[in-house]
Design goal:
The chain is α+β, with helices and mostly antiparallel strands. The protein folds into two domains: 14-109, no CATH class; 111-262, SMI1/KNR4-like, CATH 3.40.1580. Helix content is 42%, strand content 12%. The protein contains eleven helices and eight strands. The strands form two sheets. It has a five-stranded antiparallel β-sheet with strand order 3-4-6-7-8. The protein has a three-stranded antiparallel β-sheet with strand order 1-2-5, with no helix packed on it. β6 and β7 form a beta hairpin. α1 (9-31) packs parallel to α11. The longest helix has 23 residues, at 9-31.
Length: 269
């Protein structure tokens, strides 16, 4: 398992961000300033809802230099692209939680690190000592943005049963899994085989972006010898959750999902 002492969060998150920016830049250059046709249609719809017609010229593809798409992000900084992006931003101010839009608007999603006193205060409020890989992540980035989820800042973290009692109630059921059945990870894991009795005490560390009922959780009821907690990606599409033996393993899986998602748009998948 990957652990705090082996993991450079700053370098790893910056690599993730660079890869996302390059992929999105490639998409914008190849398919137009707003990305895929589906995304362009979404922007048009939001503009109509706002009562401000969206000029089609801001959705047109950027001129191609005829070179490799490795310079895609740089081309987004050219005057023509910057002008159209600025104009587009007037029409889509509500897209604050759209993954692609964060990169279009801000050139990437960056979060300030949590200060030591703030982390201690959050742990006192929650009554727990957060697992080391998650605490190390927060000391680098107080939140993060993936395709499907936005990781919350430490100030927003609450027990799942407090934050979303209705969701927890809907999942709660008969729980008869033995340890042999439950403690299976990796490719042999069955996402439907979870222990719902753990849900109320899990920490909800995300809010959904792409699908409304996806959740990222840290489970204090399952702790490993080095103090790491079990981490869950919970979604209705899984009929349960994919479970990992540390927060960093969960994040590695989220990054892989991001890469697969964006490669659908650039033609690499």
């Amino acid at each position: 398992m990957r652990r705090d002492r082996e993991f450079d969060w700053n370098a790893w998150l910056m690599d993730w961000q660079r890869e996302a920016k390059l992929t999105i830049g490639t998409m914008l250059v190849r398919f137009g300033i707003a990305g895929s046709q589906k995304f362009a249609d979404y922007l048009r719809k939001r503009a109509v809802e706002a009562g401000r017609p969206l000029p089609e010229r801001v959705l047109s593809p950027l001129p191609s230099s005829g070179t490799l798409d490795i310079d895609a992000v740089d081309r987004l900084l050219l005057p023509d692209a910057r002008e159209r992006l600025a104009e587009l931003s007037q029409y889509v101010e509500k897209l604050t939680h759209e993954y692609a839009w964060q990169f279009i608007k801000n050139g990437g999603s960056a979060y300030l690190p949590v200060q030591a006193a703030e982390l201690q205060s959050a742990q006192a409020r929650l009554g727990v000592q957060l697992p080391s890989t998650y605490a190390a992540f927060l000391r680098v980035s107080n939140g993060w943005l993936t395709v499907t989820n936005r990781l919350l800042g430490v100030q927003q973290i609450e027990p799942f049963g407090v934050k979303d009692p209705v969701y927890v109630r809907d999942w709660y059921g008969i729980d008869t899994l033995s340890d042999r059945e439950y403690f299976v990870y990796g490719k042999d894991q069955d996402s439907a085989r979870i222990r719902s009795r753990y849900l109320p005490d899990c920490l909800l560390i995300s809010e959904s972006v792409l699908w409304p009922n996806d959740r990222l959780l840290l489970n204090p009821s399952v702790r490993f010898d080095d103090g790491e907690w079990e981490a869950w990606f919970m979604a209705p599409s899984l009929a349960g959750a994919n479970r990992y033996q540390s927060f960093v393993e969960l994040m590695e899986a989220m990054r892989e999902d991001d890469v697969r998602y964006w490669r659908q748009f650039t033609g690499e998948a």
